[in-house]
Specification:
The protein is of the alpha+beta class and 416 residues long. The protein contains six helices and 19 strands. The longest helix is centred in the first third of the chain and has 38 residues, at 53-90.
Length: 416
């Protein structure tokens, strides 16, 4: 090796990190103490202290500090990775070409907003016009790492999974899902590295993610398909609901709560949720402890979001040209005790699946050419902060879906 890197220079970085982290922790403790005092004072004389204004602003400062701490933690992880790469280089484990590539990748990561699960919030709107050119209809979306995965269908053709690089560093590809489903939803089990996609007859197909991303454009994903007993065709639920048989309009796996949510598009929307287990030896999923609750009409995409010790359930709702609506519920007391927080009506119709990052940014896909053929980014935090307690209905011809024909438009249902 021609050059030896001095690892001691990273000691200064660690010292600065510890100093800033300590300062932020101390500051946040002081702010939280001030919040408690402010609440006590405002309870005594709210009018003098602007009816909660002081405490609310201190609370905002506390959240800002926590956000800085999260970004600081990311920089510490990058620092640790840098040290590890330097050590490997000095020990001769990697060559000079590799170290340059690895360090440049770490530098590039500073320009991205990285979540704890490793996924990246797309800074810009992502174009997926190639799906329209193929005459396919986008439905589900999820963001994994630096890639966006979009499920899509086409009448009398196999459903597809499109994979788009957020940074545009690699070409977009599509994989054949080997079924003719509506492919209404897509979600990711980060612990087991499995992609779950709504399939035919209410079933949910599972795919080995690590091997799936090795496939080439136009390959069939059937080679990495896993066994799955996950289905919305449950027989009897705890509340006595009858057996159903309809395609899932969308689904979402909460990696924190370890629960799978499956929703249907209907006038009287239904939401099924339960636990799933993964048998690694047999590569098989099982869905159990299912329960059902009434949900909103016109559901096209769902997700969960966790912030400040609270749990939220988010719906993307649309039908036809009606403007798309994002609705947020507080589910901290359980799904069956969900409380409406509020909603946001978007300018465009045809909104479909959503993927919500750990920082509360929802990335939405549209089923028809809208929003300049690109994804939309919506800040869920702002809906929560607005707390407008509004939940408008989606207007559509309900009689079209009363027949119980699951084939009609791919979004029919049978009443339960």
């Amino acid at each position: 090796m021609d050059v030896k890197y001095d690892n001691n220079k990273y000691l200064a970085g660690e010292s600065i990190y510890e100093s800033i982290n300590s300062m932020l922790t101390s500051l946040n403790d002081s702010v939280n103490t001030a919040i408690k005092k402010a609440r006590q004072l405002e309870d005594c004389n709210a009018k003098v202290l602007y009816d909660g204004f002081l405490a609310d602003n201190l609370d905002y400062l506390s959240k800002s500090i926590e956000n800085v701490k999260e970004k600081l933690a990311v920089s510490k992880r990058i620092l640790d990775q840098s040290k590890s790469i330097i050590e490997d280089y000095n020990n001769g484990s990697i060559d000079s070409t590799s170290i340059g590539l690895l360090l440049s990748m770490l530098i590039d990561s500073y320009d991205k907003i990285i979540n704890p699960d490793g996924s990246v919030n797309p800074k810009n709107l992502i174009s997926y016009s190639m799906i329209y050119k193929d005459k396919y209809t986008p439905q589900g979306i999820t963001v994994i790492g630096d890639k966006i995965f979009i499920s899509a269908y086409k009448k009398n053709a196999n459903a597809r999974l499109y994979i788009i690089d957020i940074d545009g560093k690699s070409d977009s590809i599509y994989l054949d899902l080997n079924n003719k489903s509506h492919s209404g939803g897509i979600t990711y089990d980060s612990e087991n590295h499995v992609l779950l996609i709504a399939s035919e007859n209410g079933n949910v197909d599972a795919y080995d993610y690590d091997n799936l991303i090795k496939l080439k454009n136009s390959d069939s994903a059937v080679s990495v398909k896993l066994n799955s007993n996950v289905s919305i065709n449950y027989t009897t639920l705890k509340d006595g609901s009858k057996k159903t048989n309809y395609p899932a309009s969308t689904l979402y796996y909460d990696n924190n709560a370890k629960k799978l949510f499956i929703a249907r598009f209907a006038e009287d929307g239904k939401l099924v949720y339960g636990d799933i287990s993964y048998d690694k030896a047999n590569k098989k999923y099982t869905y159990y402890n299912q329960e059902t609750v009434n949900a909103d009409n016109g559901i096209q995409g769902i997700a969960t979001y966790h912030k400040d010790g609270k749990d939220y359930f988010i719906e993307s709702r649309s039908y036809g040209k009606n403007k798309t609506i994002l609705t947020v519920y507080d589910t901290s007391s359980g799904i069956k005790n969900m409380k409406l927080v509020g909603s946001k009506t978007l300018d465009s119709g045809y909104g479909e699946g959503i993927s919500v990052s750990n920082t509360g940014v929802a990335t939405m896909v549209y089923e028809k050419k809208a929003n300049d053929n690109s994804t939309a980014n919506i800040d869920i935090n702002k809906i929560i902060e607005a707390n407008n307690n509004k939940n408008p209905n989606i207007k559509y011809i309900s009689a079209k879906y009363n027949k119980g024909d699951p084939k009609e438009n791919g979004e029919g249902y049978i009443n339960i």
